[in-house]
Specification:
The complex is a heterodimer.
Chain A (H helix, E strand, L loop, with lengths): L10 H9 L11 H8 L16 E6 L2 E5 L21 H10 L8 E3 L5
Antiparallel strand pairs in A: 1-2, 1-3
Chain B lengths: L2 H24 L2 H22 L5 H19 L4 H9 L24 H9 L6 H12 L4 H8 L3 H18 L11 H21 L9 H17 L4 H14 L25 H15 L6 H13 L9 H14 L3 H15 L1 H14 L7 H12 L3 H13 L5 H15 L2
Helix pairs in contact in B: 1-2, 1-3, 1-5, 2-3, 5-6, 6-7, 6-8, 7-8, 9-10, 9-11, 10-11, 11-12, 11-13, 12-13, 13-14, 14-15, 15-16, 16-17, 17-18, 18-19
Chain lengths: 114, 419
């Protein structure tokens, strides 16, 4: 079985941390992922930028509608995820708009810290 | 012209171009703004003594670029970026920096301001973020001025600008004009931001001033730029024409006492002929392209009003026909209300009232004061004074103190008195 762990935190704290100029320090030892990685349990994981940097894509009546917030205000729940690598947000939106779920649900695009 | 006035003029002309170019070459929005600001500060300090340079715009571009090179060197930025920055505007020796109508790139895609405008108006940004960022980076308004224009505190606006810039950086919003196949989908978003800016200035929701001419002027300046950079897009010209035709009436919209004057009662000699002529000319060249969108239709309607000698002389039947063409492409209840007014003028108040009452029943305009106000006017013209008074009262309940409310109160007094 595969699991997707969506790590949640207090939105205000996330916002405050994101306002600080320093990006997370990757060199600090992080036992949780390191141990899981060594054991081959964790397949993929990373830290996402805060919800305010998210873009939502939905296709309604053939029209691509963008939103600038996360979908969390609505009742939608996460049903899967895809990690894609492309040039910029416009390309990511085009790919997301082709996703079958975009025509009824919502795809939230969250950039990774890089 | 005094040196200060030359600097102010250069600022209006060049700010957006300098910032746009520096953003492209450095990829750093804050750095671009800082360096542009520094360059104008230098101009203020040096031009009074050294004299105004032959080409003020070119001087500013060079000063801002040098400043950016300095700052990046101090940050030890890799040499590739510095080389790119140093290469910026090398061709500008032969390229007049101040307003260049013959754009070197016929598609207009080469202009950094267009890139900046499309990035500021990216659909992944909220509408309020788009408006704020456009005013800051392209128009060069200060945070305090934008805060005032958007009716929020300066602290709120400062935060909004910081967050929007960080969102552009982090969300992966590209700094470019969308490719041709995306342009039809993206242009309406840009036009909507500019029209919103204009309407904020024109309709003055805060009640105190009926017209805030600064915002209107900025919106027209940006629309003019867009129409020039995208000559193959008739809707860009349509928007410019629409703004010019509305703006031409601004002096006549308010009387000496600061009261709102309806178009019917406006002194048409105070309408600005030059703006009307320009608006009509821009509109005609757009219509030649044959692809008539909602902005051109609205501009056509505004042109019917602007070129009529009197209210009675206006081609109301023609306006009603234009609204009927506009409704399918811009299915807004406000458009439907305006259509009803045109029908009332061409076919009589009873025909108009029938349409207004249909709109009233539909409920989408609940809370919009112009619906009961229009109903009241039509009832008044039909001699149904008591119903008119009731409708004026409903309209008055929907507006805050200010010239619009005063106008409605005067109308109410009229129908109550003569009843």
């Amino acid at each position: 079985m595969k699991f997707m762990l969506f790590v949640c935190a207090d939105a205000a704290v996330v916002d405050r941390l994101a306002d600080q100029p320093d990006e997370p320090d990757r060199d600090e030892p992080m036992p949780w992922p390191d141990e899981l990685d060594a054991a081959g349990i964790r397949l993929d994981g990373d830290q996402l930028r805060p919800p305010r940097d998210a873009t939502t894509v939905r296709v309604r009546g053939g029209e691509v509608l963008l939103g600038d917030g996360p979908f969390a205000e609505t009742k939608e729940v996460i049903v899967g995820y895809d990690v894609i690598d492309c040039a910029d947000l416009d390309e990511a939106v085009a790919i997301a708009a082709r996703h079958p779920v975009a025509a009824g649900g919502v795809i939230e695009i969250r950039p990774f810290y890089q | 012209m005094t040196v200060d006035a030359v600097v102010a003029d250069t600022f209006r002309q060049e700010w957006g171009r300098v910032v746009a170019t520096l953003i492209r070459t450095t990829g750093d929005w804050d750095l671009a703004e800082e360096c542009a600001q520094d360059a104008f500060a230098q101009a203020l300090a040096r031009w009074p003594g050294d004299g105004v340079p032959h080409r003020p715009g070119a001087w500013i571009v060079t000063a801002a670029r040098n400043r950016a090179v300095d700052k990046l060197r101090r940050r030890n930025v890799e040499s590739a970026k510095l080389r790119q920055l140093a290469a910026t505007d090398e061709p500008s020796a032969g390229d007049p920096v101040g307003g260049d109508p013959g754009d070197p790139d016929p598609s207009g895609i080469g202009d950094d301001r267009l890139r900046l405008l499309f990035t500021c108006c990216h659909p992944a940004l909220s509408l309020e973020a788009r408006v704020a960022l456009t005013l800051r980076t392209l128009a060069g308004l200060s945070t305090a001025e934008i805060a005032r224009a958007c009716l929020v505190s300066e602290a709120t606006m400062a935060k909004r600008l910081v967050r929007t810039k960080s969102r552009i950086r982090n969300a992966g919003i590209p700094y470019r004009v969308p490719p041709a196949e995306l342009l039809p989908a993206r242009l309406p978003g840009v036009l909507a931001v500019l029209y919103l800016l204009f309407n904020e200035g024109y309709a003055a929701t805060d009640g105190a001033d009926v017209v805030r001419p600064d915002l209107c002027a900025e919106a027209i300046r940006l629309a003019r730029l867009l129409a020039r950079l995208l000559p193959e897009q008739p809707e860009a010209q349509g928007l410019l024409a629409l703004m010019l035709l509305h703006d031409a009436r601004r002096d006549a919209r308010v009387d000496a006492a600061g009261c709102l004057v309806t178009m019917h009662d406006q002194d048409r000699t105070r309408w600005r002929r030059d703006e009307i002529d320009e608006g009509v000319a821009v509109l005609e060249s757009a219509l030649d392209r044959g692809d008539v969108g909602p902005y051109q239709l609205q501009a056509l309607i505004a042109a019917c009003h602007a070129t009529a000698e009197t209210t009675a002389d206006t081609d109301w039947a023609g306006i009603a026909r234009l609204y009927r063409r506009l409704l399918p492409v811009l299915p807004s209840p406000v458009v439907a209300l305006n259509h009803a007014v045109a029908v009332a003028m061409s076919e009589g108040p009873a025909a108009g009232l029938e349409l207004v009452e249909r709109l009233d029943a539909d409920g989408r305009l609940a809370g919009y004061h112009l619906l009961p106000a229009t109903r009241a006017d039509l009832l008044r013209r039909l001699g149904r004074r008591e119903e008119a008074a009731a409708a004026y009262r409903s309209a008055i309940d929907l507006v805050d103190a200010g010239p619009v409310r005063d106008h409605l109160l005067r109308r109410l007094a009229e129908v109550s008195r003569s009843g």
